[in-house]
UniProtKB/TrEMBL annotation:
Lineage: Bacteria, Bacillati, Actinomycetota, Actinomycetes, Kitasatosporales
Source organism, top-level taxon: Bacteria
Protein name per the record: Uncharacterized protein
Native organism: Streptomyces dioscori
Length: 130
């Protein structure tokens, strides 16, 4: 899965979580399992399955798991860190006219446009116009 796809999916998780929290604050019934399911699907799709040879020592088995999962962990954490940074920047500059949902939507649209037109990850200048 490309980094831009991971970021798009992370945007979905954040948006869904934000909606869930909003509904909880309104005392509306919320299906919390649905939010966990989306995050669970993202994690399942990002992390590869790992096969450890039956004759591997515990140290070799541990290293094989680390080697297989570390790139995915870095990609997933990087996606959420990128989104946090974008949201924090808007917050820290006190741009109250921009709502977090609007920023996430704008980022998703720009990432989708970048993916379809260039075939690669996010533009580092995503928030220039936001």
């Amino acid at each position: 899965m490309e980094q831009s796809e991971i970021i798009l999916r992370a945007i979905g998780v954040l948006t869904e979580t934000q909606e869930m929290v909003r509904r909880l604050n309104e005392d509306t019934e919320v299906d919390i399992d649905a939010g966990e399911a989306q995050l669970g699907r993202l994690v399942t799709e990002v992390f590869p399955s790992v096969e450890v040879p039956g004759d591997a020592t515990p140290a070799e088995a541990g290293q094989a798991v680390i080697d297989a999962l570390m790139p995915a962990a870095i990609s997933l954490v990087g996606a959420f860190a990128f989104l946090f940074s974008e949201l924090a920047d808007i917050h820290d500059t006190e741009r109250t006219e921009i709502k977090s949902t609007d920023l996430l939507r704008t980022l998703a649209l720009r990432l989708s446009d970048t993916d379809s037109s260039a075939g690669h990850g996010p533009d580092p200048d995503l928030d220039d116009d936001v």
